């Protein structure tokens, strides 16, 4: 609403010269009317405002008609014959200052002479189509436009709720207005089609993978609008739609779908969609990786990519300390670790099983042989495998913890027992000197056993272990937690190196490698969109922090840490060592093959090189990696469209993919329960500029047929 300067508006009315009180009031009313209806004043030009009531229920304007003629809706003749009675009509309008607005109109009735003579009803209510679009409608045109434009991105229920207190309108009316408007737009989209040159088509399933809920989305690629969303996704339907666009000559579509036939029938030059072309290639790579990677462990979890442990890759060591490989752990060493980590019997069993599993795996035994040796079932082994890194690293963590707390004897209570007898009563006591000396030098109880056995000891290794614990416990003075490791205690055993590399991480490595080659081949020209299919290049630490700070400038500290993660988290994350992907690639030839596949693919796409496309198809058609073979075969089957896609880069389906997501969003706003009609309505409207009734031919209103 345009705001008028009251004083200048009053000056324009010539108020200063007026003396008559009535005239004065009239002018004030006129000015206020202009302030409130900066747009609408013209629409009410045939009316005189006779009253405004403002109370808690809102504003009520009372208008009286001052027209002298009107057009007969039946015959179109202009009549000047007033009937001198009024028809009262109430319409609601856009809210003013958040309060409901109601207009009480006193319309004039006219008598139509031609209609009277031909025996039709002679009387008609004057035409107010400037205010309302149709007779009997209860809302003004302005309000209708507001409802339609608000209703696109809001469910009817939600909108009715939003309007509560300012616009009295039901959910059903909102739905009707939206559908009616979309009817006008769709009608125009599918009849006024001369300017449409390039079509793009895609299908959209209401429920994932359920083709019975499919609908066809047709997009005007040049104007960036959804032309129609039609129920069904078959070639007949597509043909019906395509034939409405006589000037269209190009069609962008998914590869090898039902629309291909329709496109051919309508003589459209078809372009396979580059978006899918690339996406399918990446799917092929993912599949090849998941099939071909050395440790192929499948569990249906998450997005289907499974974490797999790889022994022998870089360990997570904070300070570059010495490490040992899991598979080389000696029995003694394992036992020591079990004790240092204070594992329970069950935990120990699992720990040993994991180590054995990894060792057998390193020896190159097949899964079946591993199962046989370990006595595991397939699912047990897979589970064990997927937990391997956690188990090993968990034990290392516990050992770290143990050393961090080694000053605090209380942590050892667990293994000693509260009512344990003193070390003096132990059968190891006679050999105490030797035992403690060896233990001080780092010897484990197992190493000590044979030595004191020679001296006449007859007890078990465990007794020695218990004795060492007790002795240390008794001898050590009370030290606060976190104090230095007491002298004589053995140093921490070297860390066991095991690291987890996810297949997703390997996939990302493949993308990075492919993107790097691509950038260098094209002289860095592809730098800009290298990140398009690959993960974003990793920023250096300082820049990442800066970016994070910048991003959180608009939030208070507490909120910023919720939105973008606390800084502490970021620091913990960066501690994890990067796996040596090159070593992974070395071990798994499939990785390099995937990189090569992507480089070849991007080469012919980037350079629009048909010869290289042919080479690509020829090469991979007979390749020994099934996903690549299938992909190349697919390209060959849809050769012309693929060729067009590569040569004509301006046409692609990307937009209609984007619109597809938009349609899904619109569906979900309505809890996925909206029917085709409504989905078409909101979809078509959502890509238009702000809807205005004046841009479209009015639809002939079809009143509902009354039951006979
Ligand atoms: Zn008439």
Distance N to C terminus: 48 Å
Instruction: Give the C-alpha Rg.
Output: 40 Å
Number of strands: 16
Strand content: 5-15%
Mean pLDDT: 76
Major sheet size, sense and barrel closure: 5 strands, mixed
The CATH topology name of the largest domain reads Nucleotidyltransferase, domain 5
**Ligands (ions, cofactors included):** zinc ion
Classified by CATH, the class of the largest domain is Alpha Beta
The number of distinct helices, counting runs of at least 4 residues, comes to 29
- The CATH superfamily of the largest domain turns out to be Ribonuclease H-like superfamily/Ribonuclease H
Principal-axes shape call: elongated
Q: Could you name the ranges where pLDDT drops below 50 across 5 or more consecutive residues?
A: 295-320, 409-414, 478-485, 524-536, 570-576
Walk me through the structure.
The chain has 708 residues and is α/β, with parallel strands linked by helices. The protein has 5 domains: 39-138, no CATH class; 141-273 and 652-708, Ribonuclease H-like superfamily/Ribonuclease H (Nucleotidyltransferase, domain 5, 2-Layer Sandwich); 280-303 and 500-647, no CATH class; 316-406, no CATH class; 410-488, no CATH class. The strands form 5 sheets. Strands 1, 2, 5, 6 and 7 form a 5-stranded mixed β-sheet that branches. It is elongated and about 135 Å long. The two termini are 48 Å apart. The structure holds zinc ion. Zinc ion (ZN) binds at residues 72, 74-75, 77, 112, 114-115.
